[in-house]
Amino acid sequence: MTPRSLRLIPSVVVLLLAPALRAEIHRVPAPADGPVHVEVHAAKRAGYTLPRTIFGSFLEPIGNSTYNGLWAEALQNPSFEENLWGAREVERMVKEEPQLAKSSQLGLPLPWEPLNYQQGNRYEPRWGDAANSWRSLDILGLPNAETGVRQRVYLPVHRELHYKGSIYVKHLSGPATIDISLRRRDQPEEVLCRYKMDASATEWKKYDFPLDIPPGRVMPLEPVDFVIEVTGDERALVDEASLLPSDAIDGLDPDEVAMAKQMKTPLVRFGGNFTSGYHWRDGIGPRDKRISMLNIAWGIPEYNQFGTDEFLEFCRLIGAEPQIALNLGSGTPQEAADWVRYVDEHEKRDGFLWELGNELWGNWNLGYPTLQQLPERTTEFSKAVRSADPRARLIATGQDADVYQKWNAAQLMDPPGTFDYLSTHFVVTTDRTQDQRNSPDELAQESFALPVGLGRKMHEMQDQINQSPNFKDKAHIAFTEWLWVCCRGEANADAPRFDNMGGALTTAGFFNMLFRNADIVPISDMTGIMEFAGIWKKRGQVYASPAYYAFQMYSTADAYIPVEVQSDGGHYDVHHGVTRLPEIPDVPYLEIVGTLNKTGDRLTLFCLNRDLTRDLPASISIDGFQPSGPASVETLSSASIYDTNDEVRPKAVTPVQTSLKTGNGPLQYTFRHESITRIELQR
After folding, report:
1. Fewest CB within 10 A of the end CB: N or C in the chain?
2. How do strand 147-154 and strand 113-114 relate by DSSP bridges?
3. Nearest CA-CA partner of 140 in 25, 230, 22, 31
4. What is the pLDDT of residues 447-479, one digit of tens each?
5. CATH class in words for 87-245
6. Mean pLDDT of 505-533
7. pLDDT at 12
């Protein structure tokens, strides 16, 4: 993901200097005298089949996708380190919890707080004497008083009341009892559960503890304080604490694993901007000895708890294969080759997908190459990977679909066999248009048109590849990141974006585009399996965006080969629209893609109604396939395209199942405005 896609760029100067470009939506309506006529020719099959790899997804440690998300650890900064957040993230944290500013003045690392602010300064960071990483914390107790540290946590009490934890302690003086507890948030006198342990070892020692919350004491979404307390005037160094729900799957959140498995994604891409500064050896070995450090790309902690082994286990649990992006920024060819060998040995097979870097064309990526350096660096890493695994499938870094020509031309200078695929990304800001005065309706229709424009760009990109004698008919496109974002604020966005119903509609349009272009774009990874268009966790509650359900409607279908579909529905033309692709003609209001399964006894229609206000009745005639029994129908829609799911209403927008009578004549069905519909018919 590119930072330029995620931050708002002031446009006042541009609007003053540039000529006025008024966005236009030119509409060509369907015939007014009846329904839209759709013809499905099931015997006219495409010359290619649909690879499962178009349903790939994408995982990167950004936001709370991995830590505080997929990784079930309840604590942040468990080893009491400094410099784990960038300045912008620190500002955000202190704004959300102003008391952390005072806590920091007492020598406590973010986001730890004192058990009692009134006690003042009873804490000393210790550098160089630590069980993990670089720092520990010295807690200086007071006689006849409770002295300790606490952290706000959200626990999945809706499914689990039993928790297991651990902590490293080095006893310094005084009594030798450490008290671990969960308490009502900001109410230290109300202890929900506690565990007292003898911690008298004068060298670093790991202590395990259980915490069991009595039923009904903590409500879902309610925060509690996790507390580490010394006894009386005891002094002790503490380090590397942990608190996991007992139902965690080797450290993974079981709710997130279950929802990820239901996506039936065959690929999970482990990559992103963090790739250019990630060294895989930091994330292997005993977890409590892995070093915490700054994730340079996103200004958040990288605890290295979720490393290669954990990623591979996650892939196994959900039935996906790994697709890993290699570090072509600060990494070396040898480091890349060693990673390939490590994965092959642990998986007991080879031939996985490996990406040669991520967005190397962007100066936000650590150690990015110049255009002149690019071919040599790509070739050098390719040779190293192929020496480790001759069957490895390689994806070289291509550029975005709207600006790819010069960069991709440099990659196509590589020797034959350097790569099998050329990547492209499209993380687009849907409300950044050539005319900033666009209404929400105009923004919506321009956004819904983007996949149509992208499909045409894919052919241009493949044509450039085929013009290279080294890669003609030997390399295709891997669409390894795609996402719809919006700059108009975090709440109540009035444009389609990854977490609202409008983003789901654009997701469906993207899959329709992939179905039509899978012969040249056989690999695609939606951003992301966690957060963005995928699965979220807030305050201990796991839920999914509407786009997740759109993804699922496509990925779980028994679709093998596209068939011809014709329609006389209306269309519209976009002029001066979204800046990245401002001109997109001939965008159908009702777009239908048809597929057969491998045995030919199931016909599936994927239907997208882009119209903002009209329910579109359709008469669907089918030849070459005789339906039997009622068709199953699944529809995703909502009262508004700005509707979202969240931790309070986790299933506000989800698909609805119905059925449809079939007979000897055409199917009659009315497609709701702004909706996605999947119709499955049995022969």
Report:
1. C
2. antiparallel
3. 230
4. 999 999 999 999 999 999 999 999 999 999 999
5. mainly beta
6. 98
7. 30
Q: Which amino acid is located at 147 in the chain? A: T
What pairing do the DSSP bridges indicate for beta strands 267-270 and 321-325? Answer: parallel
CA distance 619 to 35: 6
Q: How far does CA 482 lie from the centroid of its chain? A: 10
Whether 229 shows a pLDDT value over 50: the answer reads yes
CB atoms within 10 A of CB 459: 13
343 φ, ψ (degrees, to nearest 5):
-65, -45
Residues of the chain with CATH 3.20.20.80: 52-71+271-303+319-535
**Type and span of the H or E element at 378:** helix 374-388
Model pLDDT, residue 494 = 84
Rounded CA-CA distance 136/72 in Å is 23
For residues 314 and 538, what is the distance between their CA atoms, to the nearest angstrom?
20
| Cβ contact 654:574 at 8 Å | no
Query: pLDDT of 260-305, one tens digit each?
Result: 999 999 999 999 999 999 999 999 999 999 999 999 999 999 999 9
Closest CA to 622 of 576, 579, 668: 668
List CB contacts of 376: < 8 A, sequence separation 6 or more: none
Q: Which residues make up the CATH 2.60.120.260 domain(s) of the chain?
A: 87-245
**Long-range contacts made by residues 211-216, C-beta under 8 angstroms, separation at least 24?**
211/162, 211/163, 211/164, 211/165, 211/180, 211/181, 211/182, 211/243, 212/161, 212/162, 212/163, 213/155, 213/157, 213/161, 213/162, 213/163, 213/182, 214/161, 215/161
Is it true that the peptide bond before 528 is cis, omega within 30 degrees of 0? yes
Cα–Cα separations (whole angstroms), residue 18 to 7, 70, 438, 575: 21, 45, 16, 16
* Residue bearing tokens 């994965």: 343
CB 35 within 8 A of CB 596: no
Which residues, 6+ apart, have CB-to-CB distance to 679 below 8 Å?
A: 604, 605, 607, 631, 632, 633, 660, 667, 669
**DSSP conformational letter for 67:** B
How far, in Å, CA of 320 to CA of 14, rounded? 45
CA Rg value for the chain: 27
Mean pLDDT taken over the chain: 94
Q: Give me 409's structure tokens.
A: 């031309």
So what CATH class is 52-71+271-303+319-535? Answer: alpha beta
